[in-house]
Amino acid sequence: MVRYRSLPALAGVHAGVAILLASTAGNAQATPGEVTDFQQVVADAAREFQVPQEVLLGVSYQASWWEGNSGRPSTQGGYGPMHLTDTTAGQAYANRPGEGPVDSTGTKDPSEHTLNTAAALTGVRPEKVRTDEKENVRAGAALLASYQQEATGGRPKEAGRWYAATARYSQAGDQANAAAYANAVYTSIRTGLAHTRKDGRHIVLPASPAVAPERGQLAKLSLRRGTSRAEQAECPTSLDCRFIPAAGTNYQVASRPTNGIKINTIVIHDIEGSYQAGISTFQNPSSGVSAHYVMKADGSETTQMVPTGGIAFHSGNYWVNMHSVGIEHEGFATQGAAWFTPATYEATAQLVRYLAKRFDVPLDRQHIIGHDNVLPVSGPAIPGAHWDPGPYWDWKKFMILLSPHGKQDKDAKDHSHGTVRPGQAVTITPGFRHNIQTVQVCDNEPAPGGTGRSTAGGGATVACTTQTQPSNFLFVHTAPRHDAPLFADPTIHSDGTLGSDRIDDWGSTIVGGQQFVVADQKGEWTAIWYTGSKVWFHNPHGRNTKPAPHARIIRPKTGTTAVPLYSTAYPRPDEYPAGLSPSVQKPLGVYALPQGQAYVSTAPPQHTDDFFKATPTRPETVVTGRDTYHVIQYNHRLALVNHHDTR
């Protein structure tokens, strides 16, 4: 996940006659569309359209970190160093890997088509503005100039008098968020900036502390009043907590749950890096990702980066993001307890208890989940799905910390281990400290927080290391014996290879706190329904399970062979208002709920829904459909099934 490192602001540098290019990498090579002298391009565009250089640089930094991203769109459909938007430009936006659509596509709202407007101002084809950094900067400068001209009737030379244009460039629909964007730009201008682009070229914006933004210009934009952005950290008083906003392109402003979108899930992640690297990544406009909170490994500090009402891009599934809060942790999943310390668990438990109380989130493993429990938005993306926080997050310890007075949850407290029977729902309870498991950690291991495709299904020979230590999972086999092959997930092992004990092969494991329906029992082995199959795990005297008598059991509707499963629950196309493009609701294909099997639903079925952020011409909009869906424990991950297809 972590790809960029933020450079400190140059508060001690003073503006000279011109903005300075500090250094250029000697061997940097420009790819098609990139420029070899970004600084000169900005200077030329600023002079051509009469925009102060520091304003143009400040806006570009907030929009993209001065990166062009080789013509690829951001999460919000923005292109180039000026983040000019076009949400109908192509499939790269609508089907962004790992996220899927994160906003309305195909609408006529001007805020989603600033690229076309800006291109018209310069007389350059939109395709060129998407891919050519020079033309993108020119178009962005022209758009800024048109905004200022419209708001004040001129193009002043003083940087502080461009507040209206800067605020409008945010495309926010309300005063609070437009002002937040403009204030961030002017803070950058006043304190200075430095950043090394991905092409190795180092850019510096010297500090201009004398610049005084004319904030009164905000009233000229006729934006809605109201506050959407949290000014203070939303944390329990027991935590040392601060608020540092993520880049605006990395999340959506929203007013959950007052807008009708219920927050019912809290997702635990790890960063696969340091605390500061995680913060820097979420501040990077081109990263396309964020989380609501970042936790330091020693428990000494918490940083909130997205207001809880906002939708952070953290789980790789936008529908899950709509209903969840994401918490990232400093550390590496394969290193486990080296990072997940008692202080980590205690600080995170305090935060989760606070959030659960605010949003009425049940404190159980069906609603407090890991990123490894979330399915991506499409079947082809499943093999590369993230699997953090991984096998060494101590769910037993953590859930005890969440319970009142440090006790177990109701089911675990009232029911002991023992004999299980077919048709019974059980909770998987391997514990942690005495549950010693062995896995293979291989040298091409995709980072749990990254987007690399899992290679657990085969491929080239790689060097692997055996790792044996306390774990939160159990392996599942194809037959009730230790030498039986491990279950092979049909997406990870689409080539027909057997299941493996690789640490990233999550498809052959069940995790503490998950609930399944017993399919069979033979000696010391218990079978459950899992991924449309019957799989076995070692369970002598029922020591790894406890009855779950309150669980809701779901079966496919009578008369069907199998019913489709989904990873999202969007309304039907005809349920969207005119002007809002429907999100795609498509079966996962490879996964299904076969007749004769049963699975546990985590909660009562919930209505389909979708969200569209506010724009200058439209307030935020929630679309609710007629259909309802169950969230079920399908395998290591959660899946959804239409209530109409179940009994």
Features:
single chain; alpha+beta; 647 residues; Lysozyme-like; 13 helices; elongated; Lysozyme; 6-stranded mixed β-sheet; 20% helix; 28 strands; 5-stranded antiparallel β-sheet
Protein model, in words:
The protein has 647 residues and is α+β, with helices and mostly antiparallel strands. It is built from 13 helices and 28 strands. Strands 5-9-8-11-7-12 form a six-stranded mixed beta sheet, sandwiched between helices. The chain has a five-stranded antiparallel beta sheet with strand order 20-19-18-13-21, with no helix packed on it. Strands 22, 25, 26, 27 and 28 form a five-stranded antiparallel beta sheet that branches. Helix 2 crosses helix 8, helix 7 packs across helix 8 and helix 11 (342-359) crosses helix 12 (395-402). The longest helix is centred in the first third of the chain and has 20 residues, at 133-152. The chain is elongated. The protein starts with 37 loop residues before the first helix and ends in a 5-residue tail after the last strand.
